[in-house]
Amino acid sequence: MDCVMEEIEAIGKDKKQQGFNYRGIDDVYNTLLPILAKHGIFTAPEVLEQTRTERVNAKGTVLFYTTVQMKYTFWCKDSSSVNCAVFGEAMDSEDKSTAKAMPIAHKYALPQTFSIPTEELIDQEMDVYTDIQEQKSV
Question: Do the beta carbons of residue 5 and residue 45 sit within 8 Å?
Fold first, then answer.
């Protein structure tokens, strides 16, 4: 596995949504999967737990909110492996909330397993939290 970590470069948070920068699953896959393939490493997913609830948004639309706990096993060609368990969450108004939650979990498992940096020096969420706390104290 260290062979991957030696080759992987930072994957920046170049996408933006709702005021936050993020790295998309395609960015992670496009950067990491060729390196994994080169070294004969593949991922096997396992759903450990799933919850699904209904929520109604402000417009009255029913949304299906799904949380999955996934275990990903990273197998090497020498039969050694490493496990990583993560959560993924997603909402959808039809039948895609589970299908959305699983790749979100994978998106978080890959950077955590391979310690992929983002090139970002500041934590945007912490900045927002700090701003809110400062406003409350004024």
Answer: no
Helical residues (DSSP H) of 91-123, grouped into ranges: 97-114
Q: Is 63 exposed, middle or buried (0-12, 13-18, 19+ CB in 10 A)?
A: middle
In what helix (H) or strand (E) does residue 49 lie, and over which residues does it extend? Answer: strand 42-56
Domains recognised in the chain with CATH numbers: 2-137 (3.30.390)
> Distance between CA atoms of 10 and 3, rounded to whole angstroms?
15
Quote the pLDDT of residue 28: 87
pTM to 2 decimals?
0.73
| Mean pLDDT, rounded, for 61-68 | 94
Q: CA-CA-CA-CA torsion for 38, 73, 101, 11, nearest 10 degrees?
A: -40
Structure tokens given for 41: 């490493």
Percent of the chain scored above 70 by pLDDT? 85
